[in-house]
Amino acid sequence: MSIDLKTIKHISKLSRISVDEKKAEKLAGDLNSIFEFIEKLNELKTDNVQPLTSVAETTLKLRDDEVKSKNLREQIIKNSPQENEDYFVVPKVIE
Amino acid sequence: MSDITKQSLSELIKNIKDKKLSSTEVTKAFVERSENSKDLNAYVTEDFSAAIDKAKKFDENPNLDLKLPGIPMAVKDLFCTKNVKTTAGSKILNNFIPTYESTVTQNIWNEGAILLGKLNCDEFAMGSSNETSFFGCVQNPIDKDLVPGGSSGGSSSAVAAQLTPITIGTDTGGSIRQPASFTGIVGLKPTYGSCSRYGIVAFASSLDQAGPMAQNVKDCALLHEVISSYDEKDSTSIDFKRNKYSKELTNNIKGKKIGIPKEYRVDGMPKEIEDLWKKGIDYVKDCGAEIIDISLPHTNYALPTYYIVAPAEASSNLARYDGVKYGFRADGENLIDMYEKTRSEGFGAEVQRRIMIGTYVLSSGYYDAYYLKAQKVRKLIKNDFDEAYKKVDAILTPSTPSSAFKIGEKTNDPVSMYLNDIFTVPVNLAGLPGISIPAGHDAKGYPLGLQIIGKAFDEQNILNIAYAMEEKINFKNKITDWWIK
């Protein structure tokens, strides 16, 4: 299997990471060598194996649905790159 | 006492409790040595004057019943510390000041310790050499231009160089044990669910664990006792009965069954590592333990599995860095353009590479072939350990396939860098505890480590084995202070 530049462009779009031609070529090379290494898994037959989703064999604890954190507005907004009257500001999305 | 920084954590605690040293004297000594050691680049953020203030305050009314009374400590910059910048080694978090404290660090401060500063690490803990950090690589105090390992490279360097008496790191695929091995210190990766992940910058959530890094096993056991706790703020935290790890520590390991997995004898393993392993086997035999040959047949599939599971989880965890809520933002012509430029300029090359791998293996049409396949192989790897533990109490392996390498030596070949974690990654995939202890030197005088892997929740047992071996090995780190002018 080989990852071509078109695939790199597709993944970069899904990842929301802009990639220019030079970077795309470097990434294609790196990803191909990594996937070559990953392909080793195909040596194994796993049809009847249950996938492992959690190493901890415990059931998740339930708790009452109560509000425990209050008045966090200031804390939440504190690190935002741009804010206005308690709102996050982003580039215009509606024309 | 001029040699304060040479003392182990246990010695410092004793001297503070006996009132032979004050917290202020101890804190000032570590601050001074840290200031003289800037060439190591171990710190990302220094909090020295606040630390001295806190130490003075501690001394005014010292509570000597605490486990870490007035002990200064620097921590990996992956732990959120309230009102102290937390970067995860990334440009994208270079201006991030948490408004809350991670549970693990809170547990440490609750026992009387004092924050010295935040230690360098690979960006988002993705790396094995600390070279992916936005803040530059860290020097290994063992030798100039040698990597300290990674991702907890600032942590391993700082403990080995005695800039902090002890520290905490995080370990997703070997990020505590490999740097501990490269710098001649002790590092414990606890059982998954033992230490809370609340407030730790997430990399791969099903693998990440925090753990102690120390100069010796006893100090390591004490810090583990402090940080391991059930926490309802982490839904994967496990509520089990925790030992008093330092109090219950014993070097009596008579009759323990120690497994030696044949699959860890990998092709091209240097003779030095092979010899070290044999020496380790002799040490545990000397302690009265029994050696049993075992097989972990899927060992060779652990790294490929890890390089699907970890990037997949990372790609979804790191989706939160969008330039809106916190962190770095690049200007863009519109919202999408802003996202794409923010992430392209804010993340370094290795992080982008892993997000891309993760996005690809989770993308439509590839999920079954890669992600589901990896989860199935992960099950086989865990089954191997479950089978082995029917016969043995613990497993002894080398920590790494080589000693520390030079800065720049492996940066152009991601796969050769990934191979560093060949002995540590299976432990994370199976959620088990593992400890690396310094066990010898190679021909260049660089430290080499041995790893003891335990059953889930059996930290006490591997700490005991490590403690017994430590006594036999009698390791001395060869550090010359070459970086101090």
Quick structural gist:
The complex is a heterodimer of chains A (95) and B (485). With 95 residues, chain A is mainly alpha-helical.
Radius of gyration of chain A: 23 Å
Number of strands of chain B: 11
Structure classification of chain B: alpha/beta
Widest sheet: strand ordering of chain A: 1-2
Per the principal axes of the C-alpha atoms, what is the gross shape of chain B?
Answer: globular
CATH class placement of the domain at 4-254 in chain B: Alpha Beta
Would you report the number of β strands of chain A? 2
Largest binding interface between chains? A-B, 50 and 70 residues
SSE order of chain A in H/E notation?
A: HHHEE
What is the strand content of chain B?
Answer: 5-15%
Report the total helices of chain A: 3
Question: How does the helix and strand content of chain A classify structurally?
Answer: mainly alpha
Measured distance between first and last alpha carbons of chain A: 43 Å
Query: What distance lies between the first and last C-alpha atoms of chain B, to the nearest angstrom?
Result: 22 Å
Uncertain ranges of chain B: none
DSSP summary: helix tally of chain B: 15
What Rg of chain B is obtained from the alpha carbons, in whole angstroms? 21 Å
Describe the 3D structure.
The complex is a heterodimer of chains A (95) and B (485). Chain A is built from three helices and two strands, in the order αααββ. Chain A has 95 residues and is mainly alpha-helical. Chain A has a domain at 5-43: Histone, subunit A, CATH 1.10.20. Chain A is flat, with a radius of gyration of 23 Å. The model of chain A has no long low-confidence stretch (mean pLDDT 91). Chain B has 15 helices and eleven strands. In chain B, α8 (271-286) links the parallel β7 and β8 (290-294). Chain B has a domain at 4-254: Alpha-Beta Complex (Amidase signature (AS) enzymes). The mean pLDDT of chain B is 96. Chain B is an alpha/beta fold and 485 residues long. Chain B is globular and about 65 Å long. In chain B, 36% of the residues lie in helices and 13% in strands. Chain B starts with 8 loop residues before the first helix and ends in a 12-residue tail after the last helix. Chains A and B meet through α1 and α2 of A and α9, α10, α11, α12 and α13 of B.
